[in-house]
Specification:
Two copies of one chain form a homodimer. Chain A is mostly helical and about 200 residues long. Helix content of chain A is about 70%, strand content about 0%.
Chain lengths: ~200, ~200
DNA sequence: AGAGATATGGCACTAAGTGACAGGCGGTGC
DNA sequence: GCACCGCCTGTCACTTAGTGCCATATCTCT
């Protein structure tokens, strides 16, 4: 079910990238995904929303890995390690490129921006759990949610910057650069001390 | 023009509040605003987007006041003073209540959430300018944008919490409480030292 | 007065999105 | 084996969000 939505999202992202959001119809998405229009509208509330699962997938896998973040490891070390693991996963890399393309077209496509922000908002939820786990506090606490929100804001900014530089600017990034910039931004943004090893 | 959009937005927000987003049609908004449907769709790309100007108005007036933030004053002092000024402005208060209502219905109305996030994203731009001015750095710098993003994330969270408590929970807030909580959250979230008086 | 830029309305039209009903298909009980 | 169930999907008619195109009003500049 969630996997099916993601599959549709991959096709939608591809079409959005090739023809723009306005240039791709709901019918085209349905056809590319091999589904009836009706089913597509059952999966998504709107055309832009078709982009969400793909956008979310990248952030979510990221967050999912953070859930497994050992308390004894620093953010930098863990991030670099997980990103090394990621590049072995072909699907992940493909999704990452597709997502970056979408993010890179945000300035031109206001409709995509709302999908992007919605995806970030969902990923924020996941972050709340990570912060809660790492600080041993409740996900309801304001400070916990605040820390998750600022961390997510940092990740979003870095993502936007890197995606634009890579796609529009043709720049290249090494894994160390990528994980380093993400970690640095998150470290600065976090309002709770979660980035360094925590003792139990 | 911008004023006209805001006027439509006020009517739309009212209808959204009364009948829900799905329960209000574009025609209804147009009629309430005394405009043709055609003009409404010229003003807004989508139905949800009709909510943006109102949502934005509150944050933007807030940010506009921050632009005038004297370098010698702390965040807390200035916020309290400006909010005292705000309550004298009837229109502002009405808009604030209407905006709070919309924010309070976010959990039930996914469509509104995207409008809300878009408004926050726009307000973030304004924040970038404030942070740049107060630190004497360029609005292009990553650190400046990061600080604006985290501050905006804090403001968003507080807004969501307070709106929900006030509208859904029937709670009451004094000006000191309001400005205090906003200031506290922003102070914690900021990644650059803009909250205290800056010497020139 | 007349040319041009800008804002609006009217109306036909396209495309996004929904409701209602009818299968298809994998369990589960017997 | 079959009847039953819940769940997902497709079809098709339908509503409503949203656009293209042209006519008209208003305003400004000369």
């Amino acid at each position: 079910m969630e996997e099916a939505r993601l599959a549709v999202s991959r096709h939608a992202a591809d079409l959005f990238w090739k023809h723009g959001v306005d240039g791709t119809s709901g019918d085209a998405i349905a056809e590319a995904a091999g589904l009836s229009k009706r089913t597509v509208w059952r999966y998504f509330r709107s055309k832009e929303a078709c982009a969400e699962p793909l956008l979310l997938a990248t952030e979510l896998r990221f967050a999912a890995y953070l859930e497994a973040w050992p308390r004894s490891q620093s953010l930098e070390a863990y991030l670099l390690a997980t990103m090394r693991a990621f590049v072995g996963d072909e699907q992940y890399v493909r999704d990452g490129v597709a997502a970056a393309r979408l993010v890179a077209m945000l300035p031109k496509e206001p409709a995509l921006r709302s999908a992007w922000l919605m995806a970030c908002a969902q990923a924020e939820e996941q972050f709340v759990r990570v912060v809660a786990a790492r600080t041993g506090r409740s996900p309801e606490e304001f400070d916990v949610r605040l820390c998750a929100a600022t961390a997510m804001a940092a990740l979003r900014l870095v993502d936007e910057e890197i995606s634009s530089a890579a796609i529009n600017g043709g720049r290249h990034f090494t894994l160390d650069e990528l994980s380093g910039r993400i970690a640095a931004a998150i470290r600065v943004a976090c309002t709770l001390p979660i980035c360094d090893p925590v003792e139990d």
